[in-house]
Predict the 3D structure of the following.
Amino acid sequence: MKSRVEIKSHHIHPMLMALPIGLWAGSLAYDLCDLATDDSGDGRLRQSADDMMLAGFVGALAAAIPGIVDYLAVVPPESSAKGRAARHGMINVGLAALYGINWLLRTRSPARWGRRLGTPLSMLGFGGLMYSGWLGGTLVYRNQIGVDHRGPNAAKWRESGRLKGEPGTPVTVGTMAEFEKPGQMKLVHLNGHRIAVMREGDRIVAFQDRCTHRGGPLTDGVLACNTITCPWHGSQFSVDTGEVVSGPAEEKIRVYPVRVEGEVIRVVAPEPNLDATIEDESGLLPTAGMV
Ligand code: FES
């Protein structure tokens, strides 16, 4: 799913993460050079290590902002990726705290042990940085978080704002002009539900976005022959009945009645989702009216 903080599809979070990774790695390298050469001269190696550590700390704070936005607004709720992203974020918060304390010990502690503790703490931090990077890579390369998918026929990503409607009544979720190409998909947020609305041939179908296997986003999947294929592990579901066509998913998905009246597409509103996600309640989505 496409990142919310980007410049022309270039995501900001991975760009900024280069700062703490590079600077903290550089800081450790200077520390090791200082140890190896017994920099007893003017202490420039130690000074460089300290300065790079502080600069990395500032970079980490800057990178955290788009990371938090994407965690709340992009990572599918109730999915394996959500837990992984939470671990990734918590480790990064811990690392920022560790490097902040490390810098204070090095530069502000009058005791010599404060300085001596610096290099072991940097080694510990570097190990945590590698683990966090591994989790971040898994989020992108396996869970495809932040990937700007193009659907069949190069269909672009579309998403509605928060919509509400009386349960059982049709609610406008889009127009046929938005579904000009076969395979076009749109993620609709209706009464706290995430609903995938797609064009299948000449008709419009609607079904739950969440794959019942591990919560993969079906709006990023491929729709063909009345079957949607999940992008994470390949489960397939009928878009007519919601039944599993092929695993590993075992539980069917929910399908929603659709009414097309002229150019207007309406989906029958489900009961409000009392477990609506932070995303649907936080205002990170555009508010209603922006269908
Ligand atoms: S999340 Fe595993 S197949 Fe969809």
Notes: The chain has two domains: 6-141, 153-282. The longest helix spans residues 44-73. Residues 6-141 form one domain. Confidence is low (pLDDT under 50) at residues 287-291.
